[in-house]
Recover the amino acids of this structure.
């Protein structure tokens, strides 16, 4: 086997550890809780406080009394499987059988059906109908991953940020021009600023900078 790629020398800033909710799908937002894959992984959901923030950010509400540490470990395992499966759609590698087995196993757990109630003022979601057990929450994420793989349109929109530092997986919008970077405000602006500095360094004889931190 060839040597593993080396991570660009960049600082791990607070921004690099920020949770991302702009990958375009629930399962890809889970994958994005590790930054800078595969050469210099940065953990963004390493404790239960970050778990709570992630669930809030993606609109999933665990039922009261859930085992936070156990759910975090399960999401980490699903995250690795999701990255293995989703990245295979881009680079053509064969996903590990355990990744596929885990996704199928978690998706098979039936999530609760949403419920409505009729009130004096009209129809509204029934209280508590959005609360998810640990199994149900994992099932929702695993099903999103399977839907991503199963949907030809979504598969075609799956891409990877061109930033050497970022490499985030995300879905391009279903209309309009495909994006080169995961975010223009983050990697796009960084890439343009770095290109400007390289051009300036070339004209002044200075040393060009390395990749920027996303």
């Amino acid at each position: 086997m060839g040597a593993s790629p080396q991570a660009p020398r960049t600082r791990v800033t607070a921004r690099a550890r920020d949770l991302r909710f702009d990958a375009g799908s629930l399962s890809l937002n889970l994958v994005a809780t590790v930054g800078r894959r595969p050469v210099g992984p940065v953990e963004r959901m390493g404790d239960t406080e970050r778990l709570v923030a992630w669930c809030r950010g993606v609109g999933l509400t665990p039922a009261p009394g859930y085992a936070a540490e156990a759910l975090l470990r399960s999401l980490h395992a699903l995250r690795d499987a999701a990255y293995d499966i989703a990245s295979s759609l881009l680079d053509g590698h064969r996903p590990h059988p355990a990744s596929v087995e885990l996704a199928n196993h978690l998706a098979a757990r039936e999530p609760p059906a949403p419920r409505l109630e009729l009130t004096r003022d009209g129809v509204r979601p029934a209280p508590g109908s959005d609360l998810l057990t640990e199994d149900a929450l994992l099932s929702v994420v695993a099903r999103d991953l399977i839907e991503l793989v199963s949907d030809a349109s979504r598969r075609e929109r799956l891409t990877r940020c061109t930033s050497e530092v970022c490499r985030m997986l995300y879905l391009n919008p279903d209309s309009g021009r495909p994006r080169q970077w995961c975010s223009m405000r983050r990697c796009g602006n960084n890439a343009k600023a770095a290109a400007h500095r390289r051009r300036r360094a070339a004209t002044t004889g200075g040393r060009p900078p390395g990749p920027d931190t996303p």
